[in-house]
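Sample A.
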Amino acid sequence: MDRFYVTTPIYYVNDKPHIGTAYTTIVADMLARWRRTYDEDVRFLTGTDEFAQKTVDAAKKAGEETQAYADRMAAVWRSTWKKLGISNTDFIRTTEPRHIEVVQEIWRRVQAAGDIYKGQYQGLYCEGCEAFKNEDELVNGLCPDHKTKPEFVSEENYFFRLSNYQKRLLDFYDTQSDFVVPSYRLNEVKSFVAAGLEDISISRAKRSWGIPVPDDPGQVIYVWFDALVNYISAVGIEGWEAHPADVHVMAKDIIRFHAVIWPAMLMSAGLPLPGQIVAHGFLTMNGVKISKSLGNVINPLDITEKYGVDALRYFLLREIPFGEDGDFSEAKAGERYRSDLANGLGNFAARVLTLAEKEKELACALPSHEFEQRIAEMKRLVHEKMGEYKFSEALAAVWAAVAFGDRYMEEKKAWGIKDEAKRRLVLCNLTLLLEGVAEALVPFLPDAAAKIRQAIVREGEVLNVKKTEILFPRLKIPQLKK
């Protein structure tokens, strides 16, 4: 059996999940479900990044001890993903012993390679990014993502010799042209590396919250060095050596950590590199990135309580071309719900199942040639577009098949055909098309797909059909302003 290992980034616990982190996690979940349809052994990892100064600050603000706060918030993240139907097979926390042990072992390996040394660091540090910034990365002296002024920091730290890996990284990018998706993001990474790499600070002094540097308890390991190792600590070093991650899914703002620092760390430690880094754009509101630090977050559970989990998944995967920024509003999501889900797929499924149920059972060996071709073409396009990370186009192919079925139903006036043989042929065509649509939708809309598949019970060539509950009830939805 083929194996597939997909990850999300691990998320900070200084606040609850928001729609941006839900987007990342839903994309990874969709890829995991897709690969399961091919009977692959799928490992899907997500989790929480807890050794950050922002965790300490948030705990203090909440009046809680830091570990107790982290425990409580990690439970919130677990619960949210469960409510959103995320099918992760593992959940890693950076405060777990299995993670701490592996981080310290990776540190020792990098140190043994001669790539860690102690030195004095001075620079601008953005707490929101948990990263140092160069002057040219700031806009009017502020971090462009968090709109805050970085703090000037000066202390003795351990450094990683990132500069040693400039040529090896560029050579690697040349041999792995699909290492970062979309391709223009890889070009950005290559330009950044080609401009020259500086050694980076990988520890912090005089902090109690963090993983201690081996043999130097006065320092803790920098949160990003610690966090990146989670992908290994979840499977163990031997597990990673046998099968490193196939796909890391993330937002575009952390590509450099994953496409530059992470592979350099792995090279230094003598470990294999991941297959691909797949990056989506930002979700915005009125053109401004949605983020906790900016206070413009949307709780994904608020959306799913109104419209359901599948509706949220559909909007994020259909409305926003993957890799690009996308603007979110409830009105836009509501319009997609009304037009594509309630009036589109939901209405088509209800009509087909209602008519087919009246026949008690249908003997359907194959659909007519036209329908057979249409179903095969839909499946071919979904497979092709998924492989290209063009999720919106994959869904468009499914909806084109639904539209085809609607037109056919109207043309044949399926509800009024008196001739039994003709009626059964038409209903076989429509039911087999709906069955194919449900199969194609398993990665995208798992709840709706499951309900349709449960409604169509196959016994060889005989289909027994029962109406299902309304997939997407018509709701009062705010009108989208033109």
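Sample B.
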Amino acid sequence: MRPVLILQHDSTQRPGQLLAHLTQSGIDTRIVMPDHGDVVPRQASDYSGIVLLGSNRSVNEPLGWIDDELDLVRRALAADVPMLGHCFGGQMLARALGARVGRSGFANIGWSRLHVTPAGMPLLKAQEVTAFNWHYETFQIPARARRLLYGTHCLNKGFEIGPHLAFQCHFEVDESIIRDWCSQSADELSRAKGPAVQSPSLILKDLPQRVAELHRVARLVYSEWTSRLPGPAARRGAVHIASRAAVA
């Protein structure tokens, strides 16, 4: 089985629970960090699936690595390589499908209850789920895609199209990631305002219990997505960090 490519855009926006699930499932992974100088692979067909993680950047910024990543996503769409996007990654997938990505009506930072659409019920098996959010922009639902989730302060929180899943929220985070975000973004949190912005103390309140519930939902999402990958896992749990020279 070809490895799953993980495009990580920031040292704190790690694959967390998603990487744990892939490792436990015996699926090899390759992590590439385009915003840190790694070259974006050109051939989507070299991978059984592609994961697009979050970023402090906007998918609309005129940066070379964003253009290269967008080209890779379009190749993956053409080749039916399953993709999974979180936050920036979901926006990247939406943009590649021709949907608009722009400023959300409200900054969305912290925990929120999200409503599950009828299309999302087979995947999420509940009428509502709690998810973690940290975004200022959002995507439109692409043509022919199905909305899976919607929130009170952000309408489009997830969609599905073919073998691909995209979410505006974060299911991959664990306790250490959330604590890192709150610590390293203290100034940002002091400036952020709105009905969907929580304080660090509220974000961290009952964190182990909140993360446990989040991971219950994450397991549903990640189990479904990995079931769409082609072929059995050939080797268990190897993670390769791609060097700048090694990625073609």
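B remarks: The longest strand covers residues 101-116. Strands lie at 4-7, 29-32, 49-52, 83-86, 101-116, 128-139, 146-150, 158-161, 164-167, 239-241.
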